[in-house]
Amino acid sequence: MIKVFKTDLFRLLRTKAFYVYPIFLAVIQILNMSLSVKYVSSDGTETVTEIASGHAVAIGPVKAFGCIGDGLLMLFLGLALVIFMTNESRNGFLKNAAGCATDKRFLPISKILTGIVIMLVYMAEYMIIELIFACIEALISGKGIEYNAVPAGDIGKFTAYVFLCILVHIAVIAILVLMHEITHSRALGLVAIFIYSATLVDKIIEGAVNLASTKITWLADIHIRKYLMMFNIEGGYLSEGYYPVTLLVICLIYGTAATFLAIQASVRRDVR
Q1: Would you say 101 and 93 are in contact if contact means Cβ atoms under 8 Å apart?
Q2: Alpha-carbon distance 198 to 81, whole Å?
Q3: How confident is the model at residue 126 (pLDDT cuts 50, 70, 90)?
Q4: How far apart are CA 235 and CA 247, in angstroms?
Q5: Which pTM value belongs to this model?
């Protein structure tokens, strides 16, 4: 198991898609800084006026973990993971891995662990890039840096929210691994992560339930949004649509079921 995981990590570091996320973040930050000023002509003199309001550049836990609930992290995590997984079928790697592994169940478990590594690395990169550009903004604008802590009464709620968001991403990783073990299709994996990270799956489910409730009256009493993972986390830990206990149960069900099915698919599938 350890050898398979080490091999996957080695392959991950050689996958170009793994490095797209930090590059994208840096480009977005540069664009934000470039568009944060405007040129105003006054008495024939061109000056630079800052659009952003406030007397300080804010940093803090809420901003540092700002990537976990908006779907952007999930999108790039899914893209990197799908490309990484489908690369294994090239150059005979899948046959070699299956031959070296004492148990084929290690293969999907290793992929899930690799996906978790990608998630943690991306979260760390987001925090570092946010901090670097906050310092650059403060330096350029002459503002100070202000630390905004989580309100004392919300520390437990915020910590639980971060933990549940991580569980949501892990559940999605397991689902992507299951799709890969069944189909081995890069196209389907990429389409799936685009649709899910944009909350389109949740919207389709909600729309279908609302439509069905016009014919089946008892469905109208079901608050379907509380059972949808992306809708739960997209509004933050203070959102009225955030149900932590329900979300925990859903994440455990989805993650466990997808992992189990991925293992079964890997064991039963012949390596060609």
Answers
A1: no
A2: 17
A3: very high
A4: 13
A5: 0.85
